[in-house]
């Protein structure tokens, strides 16, 4: 056999010499080379000298195909597919990089190289070379060429590359090639350090397509084979540190569950410090863009092994430290706080009773500090996050005693958060009912029943005042509350005689009975009184906003009533009735978020200023009429600006009562918007710009959102020429500040509003340029 092998090697050597002898190899020489190579057992049988000559031959063939007037004779393409894959790819890439006139033959050979599975042969050859101590630089260059092949082809053909080189087609083939080589390696040696060669491919920018093939295949192979589990573990353990984050993230995102991720990664986070930092710090505390499924995979993976559970406890402690930090609550985006809250709930779901017992006091301390920070926030979603997490912690540490319970809206988001506290829904048997079947009972005939006669409501305004202030008849009191708004609107003259007294009664009115919608009924009555007699009632309400002995709820009620009444007064009336075409955009009831309402208002105004082609009969003519807010806007607006920086013994807007400050700022923004085309609009705009400038660096994001909304109101409501003449310096300073907000503010809504204001300023500048004569 040795003699036969020597004879075949001699035949290959002779064929190579003949092929390289002339300026261009002939068809006969190439045919002889192919036959000799096949008889010798393929490219692996070539020695060092023969590989050098084969490489020279491939380079000459590639150059001739790319630069010559016609293609080389004979089966020259087969030499690239049947020869050493590393030499073939190097020669083809070299020809592809030259500015030749005929790149199409080179691309066709590359396409055949990929389609006929030579990528797997190339990677297997690299593994063998590394095992023999081959040069690492050459191996890295070949792997880089494999990853960059679609880009190289696209650049050379200027985007007209074949379909096989589209990323969505090429990289799944590359992933399949990696699996094929791993299967070959597992058959030879269960654990090989050379497996790390493939991970730079996985961690490249194209990892999504590669891992879409690799992860499912590895998950299937490791399901019942411990050898394959050890191969995967060694595979990820040998990854260079610079690639570790991308590799771990790729596996975490694509593993179908925490158990699969545990099979694929093993105890990587325990053995590798870089992997530990990525999993326990970067993915959880420094980044927040991953899905809930990724969080469940990540934290579930930490919980599935006794060595990793210590990291789970450590992660929970660090998450709670961030969650209970007042600075983090104030300055972190709402999205990041929701992300951290979800991570805490998932960690709690994995804790066992001994672990809870060991850190019970720490959990209690974090819960008390964190819930206070969240309840102090001006943003409703942040407050609710704090309530849900605090309830969850309380239920874990007080399994036998009383637990915290808050009142908040139970919507889909809240239910999703609570579901994270339970790993899997338990299936409980429903207890059977007694045999006492009530289907046989005869239903009682109620067809003739009549509703009992209700208590008659008062018909005079003064009678209403007497009932609300002194009557002990709860039925009469309830009827009065329900009828008051209608009565006020029907009797404006009588209402004006007692308007301030009635406004005072309604501001202090408390619920005596469990009347449905009491808060809304009281608010609608207040709005009715204010719209009937705007000036004295507005003066009373604005004076009371900064007075002593009022609760925060009452102060916010004043702001709500002012906004809703101003909106109603600014609407046109048709035949004595208000033309309500939609619900008010500003719904400042308990738990509402006026920043969202502000977005609706700005969108409405921008839409009204946008010119569009007519859409035929779909357009409805809007009712027109006098703006009743015109003559009273100043009475609503200016008193609210006077005393905001003067703290009272029970009220400090610039201190701990920043939530009310946020509501005040949003109220001023809406009042400014509604004052468009009024006499006082310019003075209001100038005063509001000074107010904004004084508070522009406020630490609360809700307040900053309101300040940016005020800027939008000024730009939309004050005439452009008045802005230019009266507020030029303020606008330039504001523009510079808005640029800083867009670049540096941690709150996404603030950045969006600042950018919107810059666009409004740019539109204002263009409008002024058009009006100036050339």
Automatic annotation (TrEMBL):
Residues in Telomere length regulation protein conserved domain copies: 458-566
Ranges of residues in domain TELO2 ARM repeat: 308-403
Keyword entries, A-Z: Cytoplasm, Membrane, Nucleus
Subcellular location: Cytoplasm; Membrane; Nucleus
Gene3D superfamilies, alphabetized: Telomere length regulation protein 2, C-terminal domain
TM region(s), chain numbering: none
InterPro entries registered for this protein in UniProt: ARM-type_fold, TEL2_C_sf, TEL2_Regulation, TELO2_ARM, Telomere_length_regulation_dom
Domain of life of the organism encoding this protein: Eukaryota
Listed GO biological process terms: 'de novo' cotranslational protein folding
Keyword Plastid set for record: no
Gene Ontology molecular-function annotations: Hsp90 protein binding; telomeric DNA binding
GO cellular component: cytosol; membrane; nucleus
Sequence similarity: Belongs to the TEL2 family.
Protein name: Telomere length regulation protein TEL2 homolog
Organism of this sequence: Anser brachyrhynchus (Pink-footed goose)
């Amino acid at each position: 056999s040795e003699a036969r092998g020597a004879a075949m090697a001699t035949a290959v050597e002779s064929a190579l010499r003949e092929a390289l002898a002339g300026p261009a190899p002939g068809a006969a020489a190439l045919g002889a080379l192919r036959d000799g190579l096949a008889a010798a057992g393929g490219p692996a049988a070539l020695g060092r000298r023969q590989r050098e000559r084969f490489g020279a031959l491939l380079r000459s063939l590639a150059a001739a195909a790319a630069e010559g007037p016609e293609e080389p004779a004979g089966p020259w393409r087969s030499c690239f597919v049947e020869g050493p894959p590393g030499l073939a790819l190097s020669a083809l890439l070299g020809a592809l990089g030259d500015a030749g006139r005929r790149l199409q033959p080179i691309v066709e050979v590359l396409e055949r190289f990929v389609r006929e599975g030579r990528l797997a042969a190339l990677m297997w050859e690299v593994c063998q070379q590394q095992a023999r101590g081959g040069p690492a630089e050459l191996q890295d260059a070949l792997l880089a060429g494999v990853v960059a092949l679609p880009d190289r082809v696209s650049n050379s053909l200027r985007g007209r590359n074949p379909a096989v080189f589209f990323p969505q087609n090429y990289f799944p083939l590359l992933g399949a090639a990696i699996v094929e080589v791993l299967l070959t390696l597992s058959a030879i040696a269960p654990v090989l350090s050379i497996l790390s060669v493939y991970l730079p491919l996985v961690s490249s920018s194209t990892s999504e397509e590669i891992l879409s093939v690799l992860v499912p295949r590895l998950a299937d192979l490791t399901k019942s084979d411990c050898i394959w589990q050890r191969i995967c573990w060694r595979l990820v353990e040998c990854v260079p540190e610079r690639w570790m984050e991308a590799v771990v993230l790729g596996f975490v995102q694509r593993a179908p569950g925490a158990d699969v991720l545990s099979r694929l990664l093993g105890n990587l986070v325990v053995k590798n410090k870089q992997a530990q930092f990525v999993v326990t710090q970067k993915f959880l505390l420094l980044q927040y863009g991953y899905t809930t499924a990724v969080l469940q995979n990540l934290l579930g993976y930490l919980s599935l092994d006794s060595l990793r559970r210590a990291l789970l406890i450590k992660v929970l402690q660090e998450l709670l430290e961030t969650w209970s930090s007042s600075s983090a609550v104030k300055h972190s985006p709402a999205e990041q706080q929701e992300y951290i809250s979800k991570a805490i709930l998932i960690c709690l779901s994995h804790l066992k009773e001994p672990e809870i017992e060991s850190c019970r006091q720490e959990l209690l301390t974090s819960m008390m500090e964190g819930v206070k920070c969240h309840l102090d926030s001006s943003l409703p979603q942040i407050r609710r996050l704090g309530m849900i997490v605090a309830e969850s912690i309380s239920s874990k540490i007080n399994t036998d005693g009383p637990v915290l319970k808050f009142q908040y809206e139970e919507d889909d988001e809240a239910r999703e958060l609570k579901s994270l506290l339970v790993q899997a829904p338990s299936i409980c048997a429903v207890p059977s009912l007694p045999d006492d079947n009530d289907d046989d009972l005869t239903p009682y005939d109620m067809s003739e029943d009549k509703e009992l006669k209700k208590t008659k409501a008062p018909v005079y305004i003064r009678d209403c005042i007497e009932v609300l202030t002194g009557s002990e008849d709860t039925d009469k009191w309830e009827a009065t509350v329900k009828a008051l708004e209608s009565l006020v609107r029907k009797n404006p003259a009588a209402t004006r005689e007692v308007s301030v007294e009635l406004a005072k009664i309604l501001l202090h009115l408390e619920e005596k009975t469990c009347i449905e919608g009491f808060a809304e009924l009281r608010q609608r009555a207040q709005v009715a009184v204010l719209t009937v007699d705007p000036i004295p009632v507005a003066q009373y309400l604005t004076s009371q906003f900064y007075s002593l002995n009022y609760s925060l709820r009452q102060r916010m009620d004043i702001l709500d009533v002012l906004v809703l009444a101003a909106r109603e007064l600014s609407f046109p009336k048709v035949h004595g009735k208000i033309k309500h075409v939609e619900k008010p955009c500003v719904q400042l009831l308990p738990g509402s978020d006026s920043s969202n309402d502000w977005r609706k208002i700005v969108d409405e105004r921008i839409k009204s200023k946008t010119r569009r082609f007519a859409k035929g009969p779909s357009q409805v003519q809007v009712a027109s009429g006098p703006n009743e807010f015109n003559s009273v806007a100043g009475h609503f607006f200016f008193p609210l600006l006077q005393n905001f920086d003067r703290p009272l013994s029970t009220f400090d807007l610039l201190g701990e009562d920043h939530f009310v400050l946020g509501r005040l700022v949003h109220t001023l923004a809406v009042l400014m918007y509604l004052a468009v085309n009024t006499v006082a609009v310019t003075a209001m705009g100038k005063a509001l710009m000074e107010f904004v400038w004084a508070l522009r660096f406020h630490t609360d994001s809700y307040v900053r959102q309101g300040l940016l909304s005020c800027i939008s109101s000024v730009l939309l409501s004050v005439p452009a020429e008045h802005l230019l003449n009266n507020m030029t310096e303020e606008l330039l300073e504001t523009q510079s500040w808005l640029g800083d907000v867009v670049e540096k503010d941690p709150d996404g809504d603030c950045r969006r509003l600042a950018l919107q204001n810059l666009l409004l300023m740019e539109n204002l500048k263009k409008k002024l340029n058009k009006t100036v004569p050339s």
